Amino acid sequence: MTRVRIENLVRSYGAHAVLKDISLDIADGEFLVLLGPSGCGKSTLLSAIAGLDQVQAGRILFDDRDVTRLEPSAREIGMVFQSYALYPTMTARANMAFALRVVGASRAEQEERVRWAADLLQIGHLLDRKPGQLSGGQRQRVAIGRSLVRKARLFLFDEPLSNLDAKLRTEMRNEIKALHERLGVTFVFVTHDQIEAMTLATRIAVMDAGVIQQVDTPDEIYRRPATRFVADFVGAPAMSFLEGELVAPDRVRIGENTVAVPDYAWRSAPRTGSVVFGVRPERVSVAPVPGTATVAARLRGIEPHGADTLVWAELSGQRLSARLTPEAAAGLPQSLHLDFEIEGVSLFDPDSGARL
Amino acid sequence: MAITPQATARFVLVPTILLTVVGYYGSILWTIGLSFTPSRILPVSRWAGLDMYERLLSTERWQVAYTNLFVFGGLYIGFCLAAGLLLAIALDQGVKGRSVYQTIFLYPIALSFIVTGLAWRWLLNPTTGLQDYVRSLGFESFSLDLLSSPERAIFTLVIAGVWHSAGLVMVILFAGLQSVDQEIWRAGRVDGIPRHRMYRHVVLPMLWPMVVTCLVLLGMNVVRSYDLVVALTGGGPGFSTDVPAKFIVDHYFERQSVGLASAAATLLLLTVVVLFALVGLLRRRGEAA
Ligand SMILES: Nc1ncnc2c1ncn2[C@@H]1O[C@H](COP(=O)(O)OP(=O)(O)OP(=O)(O)O)[C@@H](O)[C@H]1O
Ligand SMILES: [Mg+2]
């Protein structure tokens, strides 16, 4: 059972700062997902939590105990690596029992712990195989099993699912989630896959270029992204961004059109001036006739996705997308009347990118 | 008729195949045949049964040479592997100036056994080499006279051989160590496995195929150690450092006992075949493991 507290962590390679003053609190029993694009420093942050990488400044506390200088093995963690990192010449059983064997645990104890983990992951029948004789998904399970065998109070996963095919990925995702519920210990999980993040996390920390942009529940991250980066990174199809101007706190002018944002939940003080108007595609609809709240746009393209259809439109020279049912998207005229639901709208400061 | 690329390829290979079949396998068969004849200076085709083998096995010089093959071979391979492995691990641990050391230790491989033998002969020569140098520094009683002792001269071969070949083992094993996924080391650290146990239980078993490769390369050096012996000790003092290859060459070309030499060559071939079959077994076991 572990609370993790990260205070002002700094890590750089030469002049290249990879972690820039990171602070983060992870509650006991939480499933925290570190989400961000490739190279943003997720693995580096995870390694720092594990103790595999030294940091240049800052502290890491587990339950108020400073572990910044402790070796990984002294931190009571379990870790699953992207490449699985199984010991290739040992059987699955030996892989899982190795750490116990090294500390001199009795055979009975080793066997009992391996049994327990193997039952939990349903890999009992694979224990006598070597990693080379296992499929990707089975290796993944053995790797998780190995991290479970030693009693750990914090589990770290570095993109554990990225080498699996789509179907297996979904399966393992559910399994990891079930495992978290079953064990009730803290999980920190790195991924650049937003679906993984959304489905697994109790909270998501979105990172970009060595900085944490937002830490919130998946729902909050999706509905009220704190920065333009988060809004852009999370959500598929992506949010559309239109440059405009707040002519009044409740009206945005985009080119020759004016969009009313009457009930916008302001995070900062309502203001006027230039603004980035963001809208989720599923919150854009096509009205049959022009109304008081609709804006005029031209149809630019149609992308069927099966379950729904993405409609591209142009509004005063700027592109945006609407996610419609295939029926609604069928036979659209060239000139459209678009309607925005206020729940799907986010306003950002054009300079800082912060949510308004 | 059109000539396919495959046919052209086969045609081009014909001389090579002929050369191999006639040059290697033909010679081997001929040698084996000769070992059953009483040939002296020139081959004769009279059947002599196992006479030559009986004579060979009772020849003291052959007994010494054959024993030396295993003494020299065992020590040479053992020390090369041990030294090469330690050097490779040292490099892998991130010694400063890694590439400099790599070059220094690899350099001897560029020399032939002849040059290696000559260099060590000078170095170990009591009147011109190390002994003389150390004495000139003031240690008058220093004595390093391995070459003239029949019991110890064989070790000079081992020393020179290891000096020559340890670098090769180092480079091969170092490449193997470098190819070990860093995440495996990280997993070991999270698991709390000490470094030496990681090497012993995880990394070295992964390197097994490369160890077998080294074994084969070093084994071939042992079998053809003729030039090292000739340059360093000349087989002496007496014939205390003789090896089968030298025994065979001497008997073919100097002592005019072609039949005896052929019997020795056949025995050597048999030994090599048996040893390499063992290595093949080792390799297969490594793959299964
Ligand atoms: N040993 C190193 N030396 C120099 N730079 C490094 C080193 N390790 C990582 N970096 C740099 O640190 C940055 C962050 O790396 P990190 O591995 O944490 O990214 P990541 O977010 O995990 O990316 P990915 O999703 O691709 O795994 C990258 O720009 C990388 O180039
Ligand atoms: Mg990474």
TrEMBL record, chain A:
GO CC annotation: ATP-binding cassette (ABC) transporter complex, substrate-binding subunit-containing
Pfam families the record matches: ABC_tran, TOBE_2
Keywords: ATP-binding, Nucleotide-binding, Transport
Top-level taxon of the source organism: Bacteria
Stretch forming the signal peptide: none
ABC transporter domain sequence ranges: 4-234
InterPro entries to which the protein is assigned, alphabetical: AAA+_ATPase, ABC_transporter-like_ATP-bd, ABC_transporter-like_CS, ABC_transpr_MalK-like, ABC_transpr_MalK/UgpC-like, Mo/tungstate-bd_C_term_dom, NA-bd_OB-fold, P-loop_NTPase
Any Gene Ontology biological process: carbohydrate transport
Gene Ontology molecular function: any one: ABC-type transporter activity
PROSITE patterns the UniProt entry points to: ABC_TRANSPORTER_1, ABC_TRANSPORTER_2
CDD domains associated with the record: ABC_MalK_N
UniProt record similarity statement: Belongs to the ABC transporter superfamily.
Name this polypeptide is given: ABC transporter ATP-binding protein
TrEMBL record, chain B:
Domain ABC transmembrane type-1: 66-279
Superkingdom to which the source organism belongs: Bacteria
Gene Ontology cellular-component annotations: plasma membrane
One GO-annotated biological process of the protein: transmembrane transport
The entry's keywords: Cell membrane, Membrane, Transmembrane, Transmembrane helix, Transport
Alphabetical list of SUPFAM superfamilies matching this protein: MetI-like
Keyword Plastid included in the entry's annotation: no
UniProt-annotated location(s): Cell membrane
UniProt-listed PANTHER family: ABC TRANSPORTER PERMEASE PROTEIN
Family label: Belongs to the binding-protein-dependent transport system permease family.
Protein name: Sugar ABC transporter permease
